[in-house]
Amino acid sequence: MRDISNFLVRDLKDDEKITEPGFYRIPMERHHGQPCDGVSVTSSVLRKMEIQTPADVWAFHGLNPDRYEREQTDALRMGRAMAAFIEGGPEELERHFRVLPKDKPKRPTEVQLTAFKEGRASDAALKSIYFWQKVEEDPRDIVTEAEWELICNMGKVLAQDPAASAALGGEPEITMAWYDHETDLWCLARPDQTSFDGMLSDYKKVNTQGRPFSYRVCDNRITDHGYHQQMAFAREGFVSLIGEEPQQVGLVFQVDKAPYHVILREVDEEALAIGEFQNRRARRLFRECLDSNNWWGPGEDIGAYQMPSWFRERLIEEMQTAGVAP
C-alpha cells in the first residue's frame, strides 16, 4: 500500500456543509444530522432498512417533519462514554462527561421549588436545588461513579491487550463522506478507528446477561445488528476516498463484567461482499421510498400463518394416530 499517512482530515465549520468527498472531523450529532449539501445516509440507516423496515427508519429520521424523538438509552450514553475513553483516556472522558457522586442529593420536588421561589426553602432543599442547578448548567453528559469505574477498568484491560490496542490505535471517530451517483445520495461512514495504513475497526461493549462470553456471542451480535454491513460500508468509503483496499477490517468486542475479556473478530472478504450487497440494496430502497414518500412497514407483509415445523410435525403425527390427519 502506498504511503497515505498524511492524508488530509478536514475540520468542518459549524456553518459549513460537506460539498466534496473526503475525511471530516465532525461531532456525532452532525454525522447523523444531514451535514451534506444533499441527502445523506449512514450505516445505521442502511442497516435498519435491511433488518427492520423503511417505516422504522422514517419514524425517527431527521428529514421527517413528524418524526418521533429518539430515546437516549443508557446503552447509547455508555457507548459514547467508552468511545471518549478509548480516544483519550480519563481526560477525554472528563471533557465530555460529568461524574455524579454516590451521595448526591435527590432532585428537588415541586413543593421545594415553589418554596424556593417564595424565599422559604429549607437548608436541605437549597442544597438539592443548587446541586442540580449546577448539573443542568454543565453541558457535559452524566455518568455515575460506578459507571466511571467500569469504563476505566474496561479501558485498562483494552490497553493491556496488544491486538486490541493495535486495532483501536488509528484516528478516532472520523467521518468518511463520498457521493453515490446511482442513488444521488451522500454516504457517511464512521468507524470508531480509521488507520490510514490500512486498518478499519469498531468497538462493541457487550452485556451477555449472565451467559458465557465467547466468539459465538460476538458472531451472533454481528449478524443480529448487521455489523458486517457497518464495516463493509466503512471499507467502501475508504476505497472510494483512498483508492486502496484496507489491509484489515474487524471488530473489537469486550464484555462489561470482570475480568472484562476482549475478543477480536475479523470481517472477512465474503462477509464484506455480502454487506456491500445489502448496503447497495438498502440505498436503492431508501431512494425509492424518499422519491415516492412511501415508507412501508411490517404491516405490508400480509400472508398466512406459518406454523413452526417441529410443532406442525408433532401435531400431524398425533392427528394421524387419531385417524383425523388432513
Structure description:
The chain has 326 residues and is α/β, with parallel strands linked by helices. The chain has a domain at 74-160. The chain has twelve helices and twelve strands. The protein has helices at residues 28-31, 43-51, 54-58, 74-96, 110-117, 123-137, 145-160, 162-167, 215-225, 227-242, 269-292, 309-322; strands spanning 9-11, 22-25, 40-42, 97-100, 141-144, 171-172, 175-180, 185-189, 193-195, 199-206, 248-255, 262-266. The strands form three sheets. A five-stranded mixed sheet has the order 1-2-7-8-3. A five-stranded mixed sheet has the order 6-9-10-11-12. A hairpin with a 3-residue loop joins strand 9 and strand 10. Helix 2 (43-51) packs across helix 11 and helix 10 crosses helix 11 (269-292).
How much of the sequence lies in strands comes to 15-25%
Summarize the amount of helix as a percent range: 40-55%
Gross morphology is: globular
How is the largest sheet built, in terms of strand order? 1-2-7-8-3
Q: Taking Cα atoms only, what radius of gyration do you get, to the nearest Å? A: 24 Å
DSSP helical segment count: 12
Strand segment tally: 12
Report the span from N to C terminus.
66 Å
Low-confidence stretches: 1-5
Give the biggest sheet.
Answer: 5 strands, mixed
What is the string of helix and strand elements?
A: EEHEHHHEHHEHHEEEEEHHEEHH
Class computed from helices, strands and strand pairing: alpha/beta
Mean pLDDT: 92
Write a compact overview of the structure shown.
With 326 residues, this protein is an alpha/beta fold. The protein has helices at 28-31, 43-51, 54-58, 74-96, 110-117, 123-137, 145-160, 162-167, 215-225, 227-242, 269-292, 309-322; strands spanning 9-11, 22-25, 40-42, 97-100, 141-144, 171-172, 175-180, 185-189, 193-195, 199-206, 248-255, 262-266.
